[in-house]
Each structure stands twice: as structure tokens, then as C-alpha cells.
Design goal:
With about 350 residues, the chain is α/β, with parallel strands linked by helices. The protein contains 15 helices and 12 strands. It starts with 13 loop residues before the first helix and ends with a helix.
């Protein structure tokens, strides 16, 4: 899922995102509630109408952003009180409020409020975060029921926490699986831990989540990480990486990451990635896009973002095809080896 935190996938218009092959995008409750406000979005016809996107939208609950951006937090089992990182105004979120905001936005998939512990964290801190997250999960479902979210065909996902403690991950996943969620996310990963620990957290969670419902790892990842998690039974991902890296000149190829600022591309007539089929690759050379970037032209970010988003979405298309063919294992291993070898 391309990330449109503020109601836009950076540097791309909705038609371009759709042309990249994206079926669903992610926006953020925390940011949109602070600016422009969920009530305003509701008055404008909901987020789909407001941003001109006619596909599904998943909205993160904003819990992670509260812990990473907000100042002067005060948290208890009832909710979180903090000051906006924009203007310092006081804001209060609890499970019911978070569901109300996402209902105002018209989210197709609403995420529950959870507590994302920092990494590394001592076991007592993580135990408390898991306990509180489970309490909030139940309260979020109750609030969603009162708002008629699931009854209207929209969905609510629970979030597994537990940091690096496999037994806490298992306990959290098992407890959430007993609730009437439409899908399940694995949170608290890609927060600074080594990749090996991130994969271990997924391994500790996935076996205890229902086979017939979507599994979503939040905030990841690199192309090899995505394939390694697909192999573990994960269905959905989001990450700012494709567009964020594009704004720094980075583009993705089947032979690894490249930076368009590199002097070796100054007279390169080839496309960003010869094996990709997208507007940027079909119409422009590496030399031209490097010129745009060196000249601080906005089109450079657009073309690199177009390519990167398409690269990630196409990788998922290929994964799905090879799952259907029954050869995902050997295909993904070979793909990762080539990407990491770089030749």
C-alpha cells in the first residue's frame, strides 16, 4: 500500500498512483485529525472524495505517530493526552475517539488504537503495552459497533504487539484472534531493531492469526523483506520508502538500489530499470532524470516516485503469480539472491 499520510502520496496525483498498479493506499488518523480535521473531511464528503481517490483507503490509528512525534505525552489505560507537534495544542485520543475519527474519514479499513513500545524495551514495559493494547482493541471494536463501521461493509483490524518477546507476541495474537476483527496487523516492527529480530517477531505472530483473514505487517519494508514476509504468510504491507527514497534520488532495480545522482548515469541512455514497465522507464533515460534531479526540478521526484511505487507493486504482483503457480519458494529465493548480489 503506497503511503498517503496527509491524504496524498507525495509527488503523485491519484491517477498516477492508480497507473502504478496500486489497489489501496494508506492515510493517517493522527495527521488528518490535526490538519485539516476529520470533521472538515466528513463535511467535504469523506477522504475518498476529498483527495480524489476512488479505491480503498486504510487509515492507521495514529498510535505510532503519538509515540514518535507528539510531545508531553500522558498515557493511562483510558487514553493518551499529548500536544500537537504542529502547534502545541492539547489533543486527547482514546479508542472510541480514534474510531470516530476514522468513521469521519470514511476509512475502508480502520486500525485500532494501540501502544507501540520503543525498541529496545524491558519486558515489564512490553507486558504493560500488550495488556493495554488488548484492552483498547476490545474497546475499539465496541466503538466501531456503535458507529456501524463493520455493519456498513467497512473493516476493523487488530494489531499484535509484543516487541522482541515471542511469548508476548503469541499471547497477544491469540487474544486478538478471539475477537471479531476483519484482519490482523503485526505492529511494533521496523522501529530500530535488526532485521533478524523483525522477522522473528513476524514468526512469533503469524501462526496464531486466522488463516482466512488478511495479515498485515505495518511500516515495512525493503523488497527482500517483503518477499521474506510473504513466505511467512503475510498479505499486506505499507511503507514510505518508495516515495521518500525517490526524493533523495534513490531508485530500485532488480539488481538493488541505485542513486540517480551518481556521475556514472550522466550519459546513460537506459531506463531506470530495464525489467520494469512504467511511464518513467518507458519515456525517460537515466541521464535525463539525473539532469532533472541535479537541476532541482520537481519532475525528478515524480518520475522516481512513479518508478519506485510501480516497482514495489509489481513485485507483489509477481509474488502473487508465483504463489498461484506453486513455485514461490525457489522464485523468491532466486530474486532475493540476485537483488542482494547486485549483478
Amino acid at each position: 500500500m503506497p503511503v498517503g499520510t496527509q491524504g496524498t502520496v507525495k509527488s503523485l496525483c491519484p491517477a498516477q498512483v492508480r497507473d502504478c498498479g496500486a489497489q489501496i493506499i494508506l492515510s493517517n488518523t493522527y495527521h488528518l485529525n490535526l490538519r485539516p480535521g476529520s470533521e472538515l473531511v466528513a463535511r467535504m464528503g469523506g477522504l475518498h472524495s476529498f483527495m480524489g481517490w476512488n479505491g480503498p483507503i486504510l487509515t492507521d490509528s495514529g498510535g505510532f505517530q503519538v509515540f514518535s512525534l507528539a510531545k508531553l505525552r500522558k498515557m493511562d489505560d483510558a487514553g493518551i493526552r499529548f500536544r500537537s507537534h504542529i502547534d502545541g495544542s492539547e489533543v486527547y485520543l482514546d479508542p472510541a475517539k480514534v474510531m470516530e475519527i476514522q468513521n469521519n474519514l470514511g476509512s475502508d479499513i480502520a486500525m485500532v488504537l494501540d501502544e507501540c513500545p520503543p525498541w529496545p524495551a524491558e519486558r515489564p514495559v512490553v507486558e504493560n503495552a500488550v495488556r493495554r493494547s488488548l484492552k483498547w482493541a476490545g474497546e475499539s471494536l465496541d466503538a466501531a459497533d456503535k458507529l456501524g463501521i463493520q455493519q456498513s461493509g467497512r473493516h476493523v483490524f487488530g494489531i499484535v504487539q509484543g516487541s522482541a518477546f515471542a511469548d508476548l507476541r503469541r499471547e497477544c495474537a491469540q487474544a486478538l484472534a478471539g475477537l471479531s476483527f476483519n484482519g490482523y496487523a503485526i505492529g511494533g516492527v521496523s522501529v530500530g531493531e535488526p532485521e533478524e529480530q523483525m522477522l522473528e517477531a513476524v514468526d512469533a505472530s503469524v501462526p496464531y492469526l486466522p488463516d482466512n483473514l488478511p495479515r498485515y505487517v505495518m511500516g515495512v519494508g525493503t523488497p527482500p523483506q517483503l518477499l521474506r514476509m510473504v513466505a511467512r504468510g503475510v498479505d499486506m504491507f505499507d511503507c514510505v520508502m518508495p516515495t521518500r527514497e525517490a526524493r533523495h534520488g534513490v531508485f530500485y532495480t532488480v539488481l538493488g538500489r541505485r542513486n540517480i545522482k551518481n556521475a556514472r548515469f550522466a550519459e546513460d541512455r537506459g531506463p531506470l530499470c530495464p525489467e520494469s514497465a512504467n511511464y518513467a522507464c518507458e519515456h525517460f533515460s537515466r541521464a535525463y532524470i539525473r539532469h532533472l534531479f541535479q537541476s532541482s526540478e520537481i519532475l525528478a521526484c515524480t518520475l522516481l516516485s512513479l518508478h519506485n511505487v510501480n516497482f514495489f507493486v509489481s513485485l507483489m504482483d509477481q509474488a502473487r503469480l508465483h504463489i498461484e503457480r506453486g513455485d514461490f519458494g525457489p522464485w523468491s529465493e532466486a530474486w532475493i539472491a540476485r537483488y542482494e548480489r547486485g549483478q
